[in-house]
Amino acid sequence: MRYSTLIQGGTVYTSTETAKADIALSGEKIVAIAPHLPSENTRVIDARGLLVIPGGIDVHVHCEIPFCGTVSADGFESATRAAARGGVTTLIDFANQGGLPRLMDGVEARIRQAEDKVCVDYSLHSSVSNYKKLKDPAREFRRLTDFGIPTHKMYMIYEKEGWQSDDADIFAGLSETREMGGTIMVHAESERVMNLLIDRYRREKKRWGAYAHVLSRPNFIEEEAVQRVIKWAEATRGHLYIVHLSTGGGADLIHQAQHRGINVHAETCPHYLLLTDDVFKDRKRGHWYATCPQIKKKADQVRLWKGLERGDISVVSTDTCTFTTRQKDRWNGDFTKIPYGLPGVETMIPAVYTFGVKKGRFSVNHMVSLVATNPAKMMGLYPRKGTIAVGSDADLALIDPSHVRTIDFKDMSTHCDWSPYQGLRMGGFPKYTFSRGRMVVDQGRFIGRRGWGRFIPREPWGWKKLNDGKGPRLFSSGR
């Protein structure tokens, strides 16, 4: 067989296997994997000394999202370009219902917004912002599932913005999606108590500055909401996925629920793993770090790493939502007016590699499970994506383990004039990135093109593959 590209001599990692191997690409697919493959009449990429991993999948990003009177700075083009430079080859964004009676209307509008801009592949979750306005929720969920969107986000907060789903909405959503293999993704914070505390500290905003963001959202704000929504998952037997888990207590609740057989999974994000709420004490720049939920304490950081190590937390995502310093500075000293969000997709894999693998917390294989295989399985993309196997999409990141760089926002592809990780030393950036067989990063430089990415429909029941031990093997063909 003639190959379009041969990746030769690298150390290939899946979530379960490691091998020195060549990988042959033809068109958009992986067509052979073997210790030695013929290289005549084909483009050869010398991967000796490199780690070859599946392209990462960031299941939680927000491109061009309106918030706090502004719009996030990274659009679909800049976000997917940044993703490629960080070894991420698939993003999953959100299609907001926007008060419409049909969830599909929001999806179609979001696809129109993204098409011809994306540089790597993408998919969408539906974002249910007004459940009660849906004329026939079960029909809406079924229609989206058939279209390739089996995952639906519901917010326990943002009542004033009109995005909130109350307990009955979430209970109904879990019930209605259960039989169709859907997932209800929940932003878990207890809004009424949180708002009481926000009002309290807003009156003292000059005293506390951006640190009032911390004081108004103590850990129990997330933990109580996680506990409550786990109960609804237990009662309905629906599949619950907690987004951007930030507290150690929340991780304990997930662990306990899983051991009781409740169908719940969770993700966390690099900013919760690398930063603490001390950042908010900086009177000049603390407000730049405002996220929702906010960055917590060292003890939470330690517990979240432990959760990733032992499997309580299945996925690392970024919740990328980029705002420039100018946008952040519009707060004018009122912490309730800070646009929440951080850039992150470009540094997701480097953060997990540097502070997970290189710190000895877990292996490269386990890292692959957290940033590629588990996300692919959970979200219904596996084995098309999230692994290295014959027949899978040729989405690959080739990492030079000896290369380390100092994070500087000036070197990033994101449209952001600062980085929450400024000055940190990180390895794990790809030397080469392939998206469906096309090289989009060469020697760390983006060489892809706008419009290359495609909308990728997904399958329901994805989470059932997480622990079934089944799937393609590295040398399933081409020995």
Mean pLDDT metric: 95
Binned strand content: 15-25%
CATH topology of the domain at 56-378: TIM Barrel
How far the N terminus sits from the C terminus, by CA atoms, comes to: 13 Å
Q: Residue ranges: pLDDT <50 for 5 or more in a row?
A: none
**Helical residue percent band:** 25-40%
Quaternary organisation: single chain
**What's the CATH H-level superfamily name of the domain at 56-378?**
Metal-dependent hydrolases
Name given to the CATH architecture of the domain at 56-378? Alpha-Beta Barrel
Biggest sheet character: 9 strands, mixed
CATH class categorisation of the domain at 56-378: Alpha Beta
Rg of Cα set: 21 Å
Name the overall outline. Answer: globular
Please work out how many helical segments DSSP would assign: 14
Number of strands: 21
Structural class: alpha/beta
Would you kindly provide a written description of the structure presented here, covering whatever features stand out?
The protein has 479 residues and is of the alpha/beta class. The chain has a domain at 56-378: TIM Barrel (Alpha-Beta Barrel), CATH 3.20.20.140. Helices cover 30% and strands 21% of the residues. It contains 14 helices and 21 strands. The protein has helices spanning 76-85, 103-114, 137-147, 167-178, 191-202, 205-208, 212-215, 219-236, 248-259, 270-274, 298-310, 325-328, 348-357, 364-378, and strands at residues 5-13, 18-26, 29-34, 43-46, 51-54, 56-58, 66-67, 70-71, 88-96, 121-128, 151-155, 183-187, 240-242, 264-268, 315-316, 396-399, 404-406, 425-427, 430-435, 438-442, 445-446. The strands form four sheets. Strands 1, 2, 3, 4, 5, 16, 19, 20 and 21 form a nine-stranded mixed beta sheet that branches. Strands 6-9-10-11-12-13-14-15 form an eight-stranded parallel beta sheet. The chain has a two-stranded antiparallel sheet with strand order 7-8. Helix 4 links the parallel strand 11 (151-155) and strand 12 (183-187). Helix 4 packs across helix 8, helix 8 packs parallel to helix 9 (248-259) and helix 9 (248-259) runs parallel beside helix 11. The longest helix is centred in the middle third of the chain and has 18 residues, at 219-236. The chain starts with a strand and ends in a 33-residue tail after the last strand. 56% of the residues are buried. The model has no long low-confidence stretch (mean pLDDT 95).
